[in-house]
Specification:
The complex is a heterodimer.
Chain A lengths: L1 H7 L2 H33 L13 H28 L2 H32 L8 H22 L3 H15 L2 H11 L19 H33 L4 H19 L1
Helix pairs in contact in A: 2-8, 3-4, 3-6, 3-8, 4-5, 4-8, 5-6, 5-7
Chain B lengths: L2 H27 L1 H4 L5 H5 L8 E8 L5 E2 L5 E7 L4 E7 L11 E8 L5 E8 L8 H9 L4 H18 L8
Parallel strand pairs in B: 4-6
Antiparallel strand pairs in B: 1-3, 1-5, 2-3, 3-4, 5-6
The chains are: A mainly alpha, B alpha+beta.
Chain lengths: 255, 169
């Protein structure tokens, strides 16, 4: 167990294993997202009250799930980096932040577009919408902190601390609809009870959620790999790797 | 885990818990302000200010909507099943507005106890179902509250049995 974790912490080993894992996640993401969106947007039944605007759920919910999950992943990576000094964790946290911010934006935007036909307004300062906006600002804060320091180590520590403290916002987002009166309705999906919609509606949604998660994993693996190359550029193994490719390129051009 | 790492872990956990407590206390202190709207029972108890813009929310009471055929004026009762609040509104209602539907109304409470709304927003619940299922349930005589609870279950049964018969429920 510990040996595996230590291996995972080695950039070289991570670079190798992620190359093998990456195509599987890309393939799964493409398959699930294509299936889920076709099914959800074209074949799933419309809602009895909202009609076709209900289909925004197939983008809104996966994006909102991912926005929160990525923040948790970023905070856990931050903790691993701070306590165990594992650099790969910090690289992963660094590349996750922009995707998390993008997902938060997608969730807010699709929610606003959905709000106009259903609620009659695109924005309301209720607890769910406001806490989600704060999540977007936290992501932007983490990204900005990374750019604000000249020393990479200080930047990583500052960003990690903000991510770890900011994770407090996640349960607030999750339970905001239960704790306070909000315009946003409570969750349709819970771990303990059946989804509040029939199978032909929730199955494409589950497929979309899984597809979004695979996409996140694939993209994080890919971007962490380039981050590893960038930060370890002076290391022996990276130079060997690059040297190997440099020899190959002219040989290919010669043909 | 080395002692140094353990110490670091405890510092971080301590920091995060302190921040969580601080945020928790703040939210607890502000809980009345974080609520998006007053419920009719709070208004009946006099918690809401008069003649100032407030938001009130609840369900549109069944059979309470009366529209003026000559204009866009509409009156309805918002209820939380404990107390009722009469609402007067002139304007276009959202598509989802109907009796038994959740709404948030923005407006001023006047001395006559009515709320004069500038804006009516529809809330919707977390339940979704295809129109055929909703219709089948309604024909079978279920109220919205019942059929929302049964939506998932019946949706599954419709899948298995094909066309629904009202007598089956």
């Amino acid at each position: 167990m510990w040996a595996f974790i230590h291996k995972l912490g080695s950039p070289k080993w991570f670079y190798g294993i992620s190359a093998k894992l990456q195509p599987w996640f890309w393939a799964a993401a493409a398959l699930l997202i294509v299936t889920g969106s076709l099914w959800g947007l074209a074949f799933a039944p419309a809602d009895y009250q909202q009609g076709n605007s209900f289909r925004i759920i197939y983008v809104h919910v996966p994006a909102a799930f991912l926005a929160q999950s990525i923040f948790i992943a970023m905070a856990v990576s931050g903790l691993v980096f701070m306590v165990w000094k594992i650099k790969v964790a910090d690289m992963a946290a660094a590349v996750m932040a922009p995707l998390g911010a993008a997902m938060t934006f997608v969730a807010l935007f699709s929610g606003a577009v959905w709000g106009v036909p259903t609620w009659g307004t695109w924005w309301m300062w209720d607890a769910r919408l406001t806490s989600m906006l704060i999540l977007l600002f936290l992501y932007l804060g983490v990204i900005a902190l990374r750019g604000a320091f000249t020393s990479r180590d200080s930047a990583s520590r500052a960003a990690s601390v903000l991510a770890m403290v900011g994770v407090i916002n996640i349960p607030i987002i999750k339970y905001s609809v239960d704790w306070w009166y909000t315009l946003h309705q409570p969750a349709s999906f819970t771990l303990t009870s059946r989804p509040a919609m029939p199978t032909e509606m929730w199955l494409p949604l589950v497929i979309m959620v899984l597809g979004f998660y695979c996409f996140f994993i694939a993209l994080t693996l890919m971007r962490t790999r380039s981050e590893i190359l960038r930060r370890e550029a002076n290391k022996h193994w990276v130079q060997e790797l690059v040297a190997g490719q440099v020899v190959k390129v002219p040989a290919e051009e010669a043909r | 885990m080395t002692p140094k790492r353990k110490q670091k872990l405890f510092i971080i956990l301590g920091l995060v818990s302190l921040a969580a407590i601080a945020v928790g206390l703040t939210l607890y202190a502000l809980r009345a302000n974080i609520n998006l709207f007053f419920s009719p029972v709070q208004i009946a108890q006099g918690d809401a200010p008069m003649e100032r813009q407030i938001r009130a929310g609840g369900m549109v009471k069944e059979g309470s909507v009366s529209r003026d055929p000559e204009s866009l004026d509409v009156e309805f009762v918002v209820t939380d099943y404990v107390d009722d609040l009469e609402v007067y509104y002139s304007g276009i209602l959202p598509d989802l507005f109907r009796e038994g539907q959740g709404v948030v109304v923005v407006g001023e409470l006047q001395a006559d106890g009515r709320l004069y709304a500038d804006k009516v927003l529809a809330r919707h619940d977390e339940n979704y179902m295809p129109p055929e299922v909703a219709q089948a349930l309604e024909e079978a005589g279920y109220s919205p509250a019942d059929y929302q609870a049964k939506a998932a279950e019946v949706g599954k049964r419709l899948d298995e049995e094909g066309v629904p018969q009202a007598s089956e429920y």
